[in-house]
Amino acid sequence: MKKLLSVILAAVMTISVFALSVMPTMAADVQSPTASTAVNKGPITQVNGVNNFKDVVFSKDSNKTGAVTFTYTGEGTLKGWEENMTALGFTKGEDYTAVQNKDGSFTITFLNEDAIAAFENGDLIVNAIVDMGNGTTSVTASTKKNDSSKSPATGISTAAIAGSVAIMGAGIAVLSATKKRDAE
Question: What is the H or E stretch that residue 130 is in?
Fold first, then answer.
């Protein structure tokens, strides 16, 4: 009986250790920041002066060199667009053109290499002016700070805890069986 019990306990411990060693314990599905070079960062997009990389999207025009179209996809009513090219030292008509399209999108066409570099290196800021429904241009709901008290699901998984408890139980059983054998 003792031999059978020790073989069963050894098998349980082996399976538990193996299961624990191959079981991945991961953090929540959140992209971690990675190191990168600051080349070709693209423009900074804003809504009412607040950085917003979700509600303002942009695409390069494959038919027209240097043309980039910005589109507002968030809530509220788009009133207009602003850009900072003149603040960067560029002249409208010589270095770039900026046009608000009939569909509400905003197209900037860069006319020289320096203006294109300002776009690619992250110097350009494009700001969508949006009415949020109450006559004000406050920050959109999608850019609200997460103030919930619940933390993200990270850390050790429940399966890892269960495996640890199983190994501990098997170890206690082996220890008590060894103690009982020594007492006899």
Answer: strand 125-131
Tell me how far CA of residue 124 lies from CA of 71, 127, 132, 136, 147, in angstroms.
15, 10, 25, 25, 31
4 backbone φψ class: left, alpha, beta (φ>0; ψ -120 to 50): alpha
Mean pLDDT to the nearest integer, 106-131: 91
Secondary structure of 50-86 as H, E, C letters = EECCCCEEEEECCCCCCEEEEEECCCCEEEEEEECCC
- Give the integer Cα–Cα distance in Å for 31 and 126: 25
Q: Which residues of 130-145 are buried (b: 16+ CB within 10 A; e: fewer)?
A: bebeeeebeebeebee
Give 29-71 pLDDT, tens digit per residue: 555 555 545 455 788 999 999 998 899 999 988 888 889 999 9
Q: List 128's β-bridge partners, or say none.
A: 47, 81
Structure tokens at 7: 């073989």
Instruction: Give the closest residue to 122 by CA, choosing from 33, 38, 34, 36.
Output: 38
Burial of 146 (0-12, 13-18, 19+ CB in 10 A): exposed
Through-space distance between the first and last CA atoms of the chain, rounded to whole angstroms: 15
